[in-house]
């Protein structure tokens, strides 16, 4: 049974009591305070993020090659060799814009994971629009990353339709505070994009087990396409996900950051990208506000929330009763 | 110091700056306006009379201080043997100077008034009186020697003009028409001052007409009175003018059957005495003569020097040529457009295609004419949309592709304007100023959003854009706001303060109250 309220709105003080973070407060009190402007390229430029990950021993999808100039586009077919699966993405794109996942190939005709045909001329055009900066923040000239396609862990196949589910961990001052998994649906066209209709389910920080669930901002408990319950799924390699997230957050030196992972069938968790302005839907997936957790982290002495001590903090966040988080 | 405290301080500074700058300019403008629009007049009385018995009394009517005429200086040159006393009658609010003589002999009294005459404003309503006291009512309905409501001729007129279902206003209009049109001019020597005489002979002096009007009104039980005053115009022997005031609808309404003014007297008519025919009247005196002089005075020196070039004039935008006013006020409206945008985005949480595009679109609509702009906008969007679909197949790079859309839009607009000009040569040419680049980027953005985030989301943005643009159009299209900002551009200090406040607003956006509604149970 979905437990949606029939009200049309909530009063501000009700939301405040539930600890809901609004966009204005996120921007003013959290991001402006915690994320130094100078470090933004570390998350906005995926090439830089990848370099930082590799320097810190965090798994990322293997980069096949990079195209920086329009004149290099014609070499694409040579560079891609006879690979039949790869991902083309803009280096500075946001919210998954401009990403093409090639899952099959017939000569110079490519097929996306949902089976759509992309001819070589289409793909070449797409490469040049990426370089022109159509998908980049601020419209600046961009480069194309061609990297290995991640094959989702078989355990997640049952709850993902037409695409790869990804995991987002939100870290505050280096400590994971909330995590969710985003499941593509038919409605979202196979993309793990929430405002296109993908599902988000909350993840218990200490166990990696899913609970809650939300689709288009309304609470749900079943996958609308498969009717599979979305709660109670135990994510594989969960500790590795948290470990990678904490390591990357330390390296990025950002106080408030969302890190997106995919769990690859062979290599385990890999980092897709980091985000300095993570969205607020994670609260809907948890049916709980994030503000009390942020305040809790602030209340812990610095020494107790760094290094290996963070595992205790994670355990304590996860095991607190919901009453504890009420303001 | 924390950003929050610093923001509060800056917002307060901007509000203070706004108040100071606004009041300074208001004051300066007020002075110049008074100097230019108002006129200064000097009204002088020269009164002579002879007194036989010691206890004589002379009453001199003084100008009324009302909204359109302010007395700025009064100088009285009284004879040494006079007691002078200022008196305001409670019934008529007349100001009088009561002179009491001590000795017999010839007296000469002078008085001078400097009067500032203001053109009456449209909203300058007449003083509303809640009602007449019973004393006042009987006073203004009474019959006396000059206003004889019981005369036979009066009853004859009342038979000609039956009261019937007429309202007071309709009846008074008929009486006014009667008094201003049915008499030939006559002289007071023949007695045409008197009501009975005038009605019988169809001939009347100006005073005779007014007396007749007041008599008739009172005969119909509508309170009425005579008013004596001056028309302010230069003259060394000004004659007092008499008109009537009739009370209905909570007002004393003026009617001047001599000059034909009805319901409102021209602003340069200065009433001196309500309910009286003379400016000066006396008891126990003889050979009373009064001479009135009216002289126009020059404006203050600073007003005459207003055209001297001064650096401070840079701050005065109204000094710019009139044809620049519209574009200047349009520019001054832009920050308000941005304010509306900020309110929609940060307080309401509505998303639009491009940040300032809706406000800029609305501004261009205000500059051009609405219907023409709409036609051109729809044509441009349609052409842009289909042009973009067509170009999609050519696989061009982004900038050249947008440039083709821009060129197509420009071609469409120039021929569109030419077509409008052909059909109706006056309207529409200004629609060219629709911001083409904004439209082009809007079309491009719409396409990218449709491809990347789906049609539903793109439509959400289109609706948001339309709503914000419509709001901007309604608020910024208000002509007075633009005119006000042109006069007082410092009002934008308040706009900046508002931006600072919105910029530090960390509360929920309106849409979040809806979005997170399931979180409270």
TrEMBL record, chain A:
GO terms for molecular function: ATP binding; metal ion binding; ribosomal S6-glutamic acid ligase activity. Pfam families: ATPgrasp_ST. Residues 50-301 form the ATP-grasp domain. Keywords: ATP-binding, Ligase, Nucleotide-binding, Ribonucleoprotein, Ribosomal protein. InterPro entries: ATP-grasp, RimK-rel_E_lig, RimK-rel_E_lig_ATP-grasp. GO terms for cellular component: cytoplasm; ribosome. This is Ribosomal protein S6--L-glutamate ligase. It comes from Bythopirellula goksoeyrii. The gene is rimK.
TrEMBL record, chain B:
This is Transglutaminase-like superfamily protein. Residues 198-259 form the Transglutaminase-like domain. It comes from the Bacteria. Pfam families: 7TM_transglut, Transglut_core. Keywords: Membrane, Transmembrane, Transmembrane helix. Gene3D superfamilies: 3.10.620.30. The chain crosses the membrane at residues 6-24, 327-348, 360-386, 398-420, 426-443, 455-476, 482-502.
């Amino acid at each position: 049974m979905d437990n949606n309220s029939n009200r049309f709105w909530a009063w501000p003080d009700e939301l405040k009591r539930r600890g809901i973070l609004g966009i204005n407060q996120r921007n003013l009190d959290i991001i402006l305070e915690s994320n130094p402007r100078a470090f933004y390229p570390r998350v906005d430029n995926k090439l830089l993020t990848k370099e930082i990950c590799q320097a810190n021993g965090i798994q990322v999808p293997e980069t096949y090659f990079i195209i920086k100039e329009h004149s290099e586009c014609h070499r694409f077919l040579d560079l891609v060799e006879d690979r039949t699966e790869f991902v083309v993405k803009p280096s500075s794109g946001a919210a998954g814009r401009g990403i093409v996942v090639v899952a099959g190939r017939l000569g110079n005709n490519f097929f996306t994971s949902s089976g759509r045909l992309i001819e070589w001329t289409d793909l070449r055009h797409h490469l040049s629009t990426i370089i022109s900066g159509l998908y980049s923040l601020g419209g600046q000239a961009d480069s194309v990353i061609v990297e290995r396609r991640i094959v989702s862990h078989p355990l997640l196949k049952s709850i993902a339709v037409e695409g790869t589910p990804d995991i987002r961990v939100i870290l505050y001052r280096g400590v994971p505070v909330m995590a969710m998994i985003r499941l593509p649906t038919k409605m979202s066209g196979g993309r793990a994009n929430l405002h296109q209709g993908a599902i988000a389910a909350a993840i218990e920080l200490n166990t990696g087990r899913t609970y809650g669930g939300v689709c288009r901002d309304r609470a749900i408990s079943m996958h609308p396409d498969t009717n599979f319950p979305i709660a109670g799924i135990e994510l594989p390699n969960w500790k590795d996900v948290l470990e990678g997230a904490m390591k990357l957050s330390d390296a990025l030196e950002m106080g408030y950051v969302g890190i997106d992972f995919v769990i690859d069938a062979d290599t385990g968790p890999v980092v897709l990208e980091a985000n300095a302005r993570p969205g607020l839907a994670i609260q809907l997936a948890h049916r709980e506000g994030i503000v009390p957790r942020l305040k809790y982290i602030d209340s812990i002495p610095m020494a107790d929330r760094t290094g290996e001590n963070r595992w205790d903090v994670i355990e304590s966040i996860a095991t607190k009763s919901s009453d504890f988080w009420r303001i | 110091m924390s950003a929050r405290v610093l923001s509060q301080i800056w917002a307060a500074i901007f509000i203070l700056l706004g108040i100071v700058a606004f009041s300074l300019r208001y004051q300066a403008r007020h002075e110049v306006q008074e100097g230019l629009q108002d006129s200064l007049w000097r009204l002088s009385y020269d009164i002579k009379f002879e007194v036989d018995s010691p206890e004589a009394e002379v009453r001199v009517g003084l100008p009324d201080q009302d909204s359109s005429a302010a007395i700025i200086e009064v100088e009285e040159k009284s004879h040494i043997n006079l007691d002078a006393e200022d008196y305001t009658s409670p019934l008529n609010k007349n100001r009088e100077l009561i002179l009491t003589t001590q000795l017999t002999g010839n007296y000469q009294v002078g008085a001078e008034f400097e009067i500032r005459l203001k053109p009456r404003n449209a909203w300058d309503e007449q003083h509303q009186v809640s009602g007449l006291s019973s004393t006042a009512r009987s006073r203004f309905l009474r019959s006396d020697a000059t206003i004889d409501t019981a005369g036979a001729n009066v009853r004859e007129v009342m038979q000609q003009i039956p009261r019937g279902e007429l309202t007071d206003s309709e009846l008074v209009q008929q009486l006014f028409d009667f008094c201003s049109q049915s008499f030939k001019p006559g002289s007071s020597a023949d007695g045409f001052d008197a009501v009975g005489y005038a009605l019988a002979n169809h001939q009347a002096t100006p005073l005779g007409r007014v007396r007749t009007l007041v008599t008739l009104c009172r005969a119909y039980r509508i309170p009425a009175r005579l008013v004596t005053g001056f028309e302010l115009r230069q003259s060394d022997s000004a004659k007092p003018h008499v008109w009537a005031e009739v009370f209905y609808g909570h007002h004393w309404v003026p009617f001047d059957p001599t000059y034909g003014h009805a319901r409102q007297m021209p602003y340069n008519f200065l009433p001196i005495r309500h309910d009286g025919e003379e400016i000066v009247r006396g008891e126990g005196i003889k050979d009373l003569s009064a001479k009135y002089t009216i002289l126009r005075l020059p404006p203050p020196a600073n007003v005459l020097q207003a055209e001297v070039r001064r650096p401070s004039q840079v701050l005065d935008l109204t000094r710019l040529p009139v044809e620049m006013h519209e574009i200047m006020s349009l520019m001054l409206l832009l920050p308000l457009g941005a304010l509306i945008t900020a309110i929609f985005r940060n307080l309401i949480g509505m998303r639009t295609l491009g940040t300032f595009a809706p406000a800029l679109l609305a501004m261009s609509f205000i500059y051009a004419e609405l219907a023409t702009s709409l036609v051109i906008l729809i044509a441009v969007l349609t052409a842009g949309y289909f042009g973009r679909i067509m170009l999609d197949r050519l696989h061009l790079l982004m900038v050249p592709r947008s440039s083709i859309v821009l060129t197509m839009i420009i071609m469409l607009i120039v021929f569109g304007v030419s077509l409008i000009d052909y059909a109706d040569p006056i309207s529409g040419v200004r629609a060219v100023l629709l911001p083409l680049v904004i439209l082009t980027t809007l079309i491009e953005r719409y396409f990218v959003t449709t491809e990347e985030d789906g049609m539903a989301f793109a439509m959400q943005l289109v609706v948001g854009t339309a709503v914000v643009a419509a709001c901007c159009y309604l608020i910024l299209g208000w002509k007075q706001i633009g005119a006000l900002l042109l006069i007082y551009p410092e009002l934008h200090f308040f706009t900046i303060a508002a931006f600072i406040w919105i910029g530090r607003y960390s509360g929920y956006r309106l849409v979040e109250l809806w979005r997170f509604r399931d979180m409270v149970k």
